[in-house]
Amino acid sequence: MTAACELNPWMADLARVKQAMFHPADLRDKWRILVYWLTNFRHSLPICRFMKRSAFLKTMNQHIVIRDETPEDVRAITGVTVAAFATLEISQHTEQFIIEALRAAGALTISLVAELEGRVVGHIAFSPLNMPDGAGGWFGLGPVSVLPEYQRQGIGGALIREGLARLQSLGAKGCCLVGHPEYYRQFGFVNPQGLGHEGVPPEVFFALSFDGDVPQGMVKFHEAFMADGSATSNK
Ligand SMILES: CC(C)(COP(=O)(O)OP(=O)(O)OC[C@H]1O[C@@H](n2cnc3c(N)ncnc32)[C@H](O)[C@@H]1OP(=O)(O)O)[C@@H](O)C(=O)NCCC(=O)NCCS
Questions:
Q1: pLDDT tens digit string along 110-154?
Q2: Looking at 20, 35, 61, which one is the last position of a domain?
Q3: 151 and 53 co-located in one domain
Q4: In sequence order, which ranges of 9-63 are alpha helices (DSSP H)?
Q5: Which one of 21, 34, 106, 176 is separated from 214 by 20 to 30 angstroms, measured CA to CA?
């Protein structure tokens, strides 16, 4: 047993835990042994990291505030957007101009920021879509951004869920977006049959219908999505 344990530290840990678990003095205190095992042995490191990350996210999410943008947030929103898209190869790096153009056109139906301890760390925009049947009630999601150092901590998800809830409370029929093929399904988005956007591969075009009806044809995002900063720099 000793040799086996020297060869296999995991087995040694297990043997120690077994011994301790069935020792009469410790039978009453299995919980403490389990905690000791989880926090002291090498093989439990991934579990500990997971627990630490969950605890960190739980603590952090308690401090995240998702709220409407205010005029004071405009500069920070630009900063978050520029930073988030800076290293994204498929980006044209015009997202900050799109947000500005949507705002100037009065087409930022919903513009939410994620604030952490007074700092804007994320942003999401929703704007009206031109649907193929001319019907209203559908909105485009995006751009959505989280500062690189705060990504993958649930902030983007919180912004999207809150934005979709707000859309529904406005009586919206649905929402479309162009985005990462893997990210948006968790929020209920699907690659819709018969609905798309010209020039956009179907696998990156997503729709979420709130009433189950999916219009057929090609949608158009607001013309502000053509903004490239030239209008701003000419001023
Ligand atoms: C996309 C973005 C808004 C997501 O925000 P976030 O706070 O990082 O996302 P969340 O923490 O809510 O979600 C994390 C989970 O979503 C998935 N995910 C996040 N970003 C992803 C990406 N770029 N591609 C695929 N899956 C992604 C992963 O499953 C991840 O879980 P994991 O960390 O366990 O792997 C953020 O990463 C970002 O600003 N990216 C740069 C700008 C951008 O790409 N915007 C969207 C354009 S379509």
A1: 999 999 999 999 999 999 999 998 989 999 999 999 999 999 999
A2: 61
A3: no
A4: 9-22, 30-40, 45-63
A5: 106
CA of 57 to the centre of ligand 1 (A): 15
Number of domains composing the chain:
2
Tell how far the Cα of 54 is from the centroid of ligand 1, in angstroms. 17
C-alpha distances out from residue 145 to 142, 186, 226, 230, Å? 8, 17, 18, 22
Among candidate residues 41, 61, 81, the one where a domain is terminated = 61
119 and 198 share one domain: yes
pLDDT digits (tens, 9 = 90+) for 82-93: 999 999 999 999
User: What range defines the domain where residue 20 resides?
Assistant: 2-61
**With b meaning 16 or more CB within 10 Å and e meaning fewer, what string describes 133-150?**
eeeebbbbbbbbbbbeeb
Q: What is the CATH number of the domain that holds 138?
A: 3.40.630.30
Entry pTM:
0.79
| Residue 53 CA, ligand 1 centroid: distance in Å | 16
C-alpha 214/C-alpha 202 separation (Å) is 15
Residue 81 beta carbon below 6 angstroms from any ligand 1 atom: no
How many CA atoms within 13 Å lie on the side-chain side of 169? Answer: 8
